[in-house]
UniProtKB/TrEMBL annotation, chain A:
Keyword Cell membrane in annotation: yes
Record's keyword annotation contains Translocase: yes
Residue stretches spanning the membrane: none
Spans annotated as Disordered: 1-22
Protein name per UniProt: Phosphonate ABC transporter ATP-binding protein
Keyword terms, alphabetized: ATP-binding, Cell membrane, Membrane, Nucleotide-binding, Translocase, Transport
Stored SUPFAM superfamilies: P-loop containing nucleoside triphosphate hydrolases (SSF52540)
GO-annotated molecular function: ATP binding
NCBIfam families according to UniProt: ABC_phnC
From TrEMBL, chain B:
Segments crossing the lipid bilayer: 87-109, 135-159, 248-269
Name of the protein in its database record: Phosphonate ABC transporter, permease protein PhnE
Annotated Gene3D superfamilies: MetI-like
SUPFAM superfamilies attached to this UniProt entry: MetI-like (SSF161098)
Length: 275, 274
């Protein structure tokens, strides 16, 4: 169920109010306290409105890389910039404001299962809401409207008052996408968004991400380990291996040999999702 | 790496001999036995346990037990008022402690409070609160605010906070908190994340522990009356003073029934909370 009609053209189409933003990594190194070096001097530039796959096996550093972009993981050295935000230099309120402009979805959905779909999506309004408003549990009309429109755009509006824990995996990931869209982000990050889903659901979630890139013109960065998803849904592919960029080029024309260089081993059947 | 298919092709292997565990078990039992003997030997600094005293004195108690086996129900009308007072103290104490326990539990748990020094401070204060026996609170409070239900209720609140916050914060510590990463990624403050997502995740644990504290409160407030902190304990003290063991057993039966009723009610509530 490939949704080729929503395949994005590089550069995007209709820019949102703030416009899509470029992402720039300059000699970024991340060393964890346990001594593991997850990223080794990675430099790259992602243009505004691009749809980029970061491909690599688990442990290649792609999860770390996507988390340096919104400051969840601070770089040990180097510089990270997203649009006007110098993320790697920010702390406290400024960092939270920058994160508010960067949406993120996760492999495990990261929803609060006992909270309603509405409240989970309202999490995306945090950076737009004063803390006292959150404390009182009062969403403003603007926040409520934004959440409802985001849920509607992923087809989850009818479940708005259901508990998040009662949803299927695909529905949970859609709510997580709506949560990110409620932020009105300029950049969307996705960390293995379909690795916990069955193949048909995985394809439809990837199509959702592609259409977000095409219709909203967001810069989308998605971590994947499956080669066919990268080829089908993204325009540019960055291959990571042991914390270093080993491939950077168009995704559709990447050969099996290119993937073997990224994986560091022959291509196997489990490297493809299939239909 | 061997696959299942490869393993199936190999000839069946001999089952490895089961390791002998009884020498270790024997050593553990021996250590426990020696420790028990040592703690009960006065010569080694252990406690003095004189089993002979049981033989000498058991008849004294037997009379009282005999009396208690025939409850004197005529005391019942006099128990309603203090029993109701005990129940009121238990409910008010549990309710106040529940409200106070919400922020304290969130501050005492690691996922909801990443600030280690503040967390340690909250936990230390709670350890102090738990370390003081409830009768000490009641005695001091009776001296401070006078005889009546008020010192009793304050004692129950302190006691309940100690246990509820400990158990709920441990539940938060051990629960999955991956949703917090999403809140942080969206630019939320810890307070926002706690209010909108951690709180609904914590309700069942909190409700369950508050119901448990309600049950404990009924038992404890039976004791608190001994030092003048209100409730049915005052009547227990009075009956004991008059050697009315038959009336005492009526009161004990009453407390037992109330505790069982609360337990049944809280079991029903707990099931609905899941």
């Amino acid at each position: 169920m490939s949704d080729l009609s929503t395949r994005p053209e590089a550069g995007g189409t209709t820019p949102s109010a703030s416009g899509p933003w470029p992402i720039e990594l300059d000699e970024v190194t991340v060393r964890y306290p346990n001594g593991v070096t997850a990223l080794k001097g990675v430099s790259l530039r992602i243009e505004a409105g691009e749809m980029v796959a970061i491909v690599g096996l688990s442990g290649s550093g792609k999860s770390t890389m996507i988390r340096t972009i919104n400051g969840l993981v601070p770089p040990t050295s180097g510089r990270v910039a997203v649009g006007p935000h110098a993320v790697s230099e920010l702390r406290g309120r400024a960092l939270r404001e920058a994160r508010g402009d960067i949406g993120m979805i996760f492999q495990g959905f990261n929803l609060a299962d006992r909270a309603s779909v509405f409240h989970n999506a309202l999490v995306g309004r945090f950076s737009h809401m004063p803390t006292w408003r959150t404390m009182l549990g009062l969403a403003s009309d603007v926040d409520r409207d934004m959440v409802m429109r985001s849920l509607d755009s992923v087809g989850m509006l009818e479940k708005v008052w259901h508990r998040a824990g009662a949803l299927s995996g695909g529905q949970k990931q859609r709510v997580a996408i709506a949560r990110a869209l409620s932020q009105e982000p300029a950049v969307m990050l996705a960390d293995e968004p379909v690795a916990s889903l069955d193949p048909p659901t995985a394809h439809s979630v990837m199509a959702d991400l592609a259409s977000i890139n095409a219709s909203r013109g967001l810069t989308v960065l998605v971590n994947l380990h499956l080669m066919d998803l990268a080829r089908q849904y993204t325009t540019r592919m960055i291959g990571l291996r042991a914390g270093e960029v080993v491939y950077d080029g168009p995704a559709a024309s990447a050969t099996d040999a290119d993937f073997e260089a990224i994986y560091g081993r022959p291509v196997q059947s489990r490297d493809r999702l299939g239909e | 790496m061997t696959t299942v298919a490869e393993a199936a092709e190999r000839p069946a292997q001999a089952i490895p001999p089961r390791p002998r565990t009884w020498p270790r078990t024997a050593r553990i039992v021996a250590v426990l036995a020696v420790l028990t003997a040592a703690t009960a030997t006065p010569a080694l600094g252990g406690v003095e346990i004189d089993l002979g005293a049981i033989a000498d004195n058991w008849t004294n108690g037997a009379d009282r037990i005999g009396q208690m086996l025939v409850p004197d129900l005529s005391v019942l009308p006099r128990t309603w008022q203090p029993l109701l007072e005990t129940l009121q103290m238990a409910v008010v104490g549990a309710a106040i402690s529940a409200v106070l326990a919400v922020p304290l539990s969130l501050w005492a748990a690691r996922p909801t409070n990443p600030n280690a020094p503040v967390r340690a401070a909250v936990r230390f204060v709670l350890n102090v609160i738990r370390a003081v026996p409830d009768l000490v609170y009641a005695t001091v409070l009776v001296a401070m605010v006078g005889v009546g239900t008020l010192p009793g209720v304050i004692t129950l609140v302190l006691f309940d906070i100690g246990i509820v916050v400990k158990l709920v914060s441990e539940a938060i510590d051990s629960a999955d908190s991956s949703y917090m990463e999403a809140g942080r990624a969206a630019g939320g403050t810890q307070t926002q994340i706690n209010r909108l997502t951690a709180l609904p995740q914590t309700w069942p644990a909190l409700a369950s522990q508050v119901l448990y504290s309600l049950e404990l409160n009924v038992r404890i407030s039976a004791i608190l009356g001994l030092v003048g902190a209100g409730g049915i304990g005052r009547l227990i003290d009075e009956m004991r003073g008059f050697y009315r063991y038959d009336a005492l057993s009526t009161i004990i039966l009453e407390i037992l029934i109330v505790v069982i009723l609360i337990e049944l009610a809280s079991n029903v509530l707990r099931k609905r909370l899941r």
